[in-house]
Each structure stands twice: as C-alpha cells, then as structure tokens.
Write the structure tokens for this entry.
Amino acid sequence: MKASAFSYARATSVSNALELLHAHGDRAKVLSGGQNLMPAMNLRLISPELIVDIGELTELRGIAVTGHNVRIGALTRHADLARSGEIAAHAPLLAEAIAHVAHPAIRNRGTLGGSLAHADPASELPACMLALNATIIVRGQAGERKIAARDFFTGIYETALSPEELLVAVELPAKLKNSVHFFHEFARRHGDYAILGLAAQAIVKGNGLADLRLAFFAVGDRPVLARAARKLVGLAITPAVLADACTALSEELDPQDDQQASASMRRHLAKVLLVRCVSALLGRPDLDAGRPA
C-alpha cells in the first residue's frame, strides 16, 4: 500500500515552517527523519494534505553544553547522539538507550525530536526524557513554550504539542556529582519493540539513594514515572524495603494485554527490572539475588 496524494513543502527556516503549520493546522504533518511518518502514511493510518519537510533546517541540529544544561536540537539524529562526547559525559543514560532504538539504518536517519513528537509508548527516548527530568522546547507563531517531559506525553501517540507548533529542542540538566543511571529493556530480539523497559537516573548518597527517577515504558499509553521510587529514597535499602517498593509498583502500573505479553507478565517484569535497577545503582548484587520469582 502507498500513501494517498499529498502536497509537499520544504521549509527554508523555522519561521517558514511555522507559517505553513499555522496555515494548514492539523491537515499538515512535519517530516524530520521520516522513520515513523512515512510507514504510517504508506499504511494510510494517516493521510495529511501537506508534508512540511524541516530536514534541511541546520539550526535545529547539534548539542551544546551551557552552564548546568545540555541543549539538543530536535533534528539531532540518533546516531549523532550515540557518538557525542557531550552526551556520553552528561547524559550517559541517553547514550546507552540509543543503542536499543531499532537498527542502524533507523538510527542514522531518525531524530530525537521526531521520536518525542511521535510519542510511541514503547519507545526508549520518551522514557529517557522523564528519567533525565528533561524540558521539551516547542515554538509557535505566538512564541516559545517550555514543557516538562512528564507533562509532554499525554497519551498513545499524543503530546502537548499543538498542530501549529514545532518541537525545536530538548534541555537536560548536566550530570550531577554521584549521578548514576540504569537502562534495560525486554524484547524478543534486539531492535524489536520493547515488551517492557526501564530508564532510571539516581543520585547515590552513602549506601542509599538521595534521588531516584524510574521511567517505565511499554506499560501503558505513555511512559510512566513511577511513584514507587519514593519508597526507596533516603532509606537504608533492605530486601524488605525493596519488596515493599515492588508491591507499590505493581499496584501503580496499569499495563494492557497485547500480542507480546499479558498485563500480569508486564507487572512481573517491571518488578524484576526494579530490583535489578536498584541492585546495579547501589552495587548490591545481594539485592538482585532476591528478586521476584
């Protein structure tokens, strides 16, 4: 199957792209890397009247560290993130997660902004944005908005981005002292859609955790920043404390049954990843030895 007929415009600047989006509203779609948009159009899941190609807007590419922030342009490709020394130094969680995004051909063309705007609930990068406490920067003709990552993803393939706005950049806090991370996903094969995954960022203090952000993906209609993390902060981590957090996590999550896994299987895998995560963050293999059966 091929896409239905559409018009095409190559934006010459961000302002030009916004003019086109303002004129056509939800009848237009933005093309950046095209790794999600083109398959959806070919399957006729969507049939936009106009494609606004922003792929040549070099002002939306690049990575810059300024003060306590890392700013990443929306058109920065996955492969560029994987090779970046700045990302490796300040957001190693993101660098690790990129290796799990599909396959090299996709990573060579796919963009950070495209992945976030697509908002696939099984995607790695939206969850990383939650774990890293990122800010999503969008621009419309009325000006610029900054949206906390936890408020940006609103449902399956849905975000707080309006049809007349463009995602232009992401800002991440620079890496803090004693900051550690964890990433793991379960998939039938490397590069397949995740059955369930976890992106986590933490601050280690002494033998415990001073801060912990657990972002699960493929557990619902959007990535989930788990409230159960609160049960592990500022405490001496014992098997009993970890078990209590696992129970809270299982009650909090509301996964669905699908062709990949049942809801009960996903709850079990989430608890397995929680235990594995805390064990790795604290360097406590004894905790992982007692993970849920």
About this structure: The longest helix spans residues 263-282.
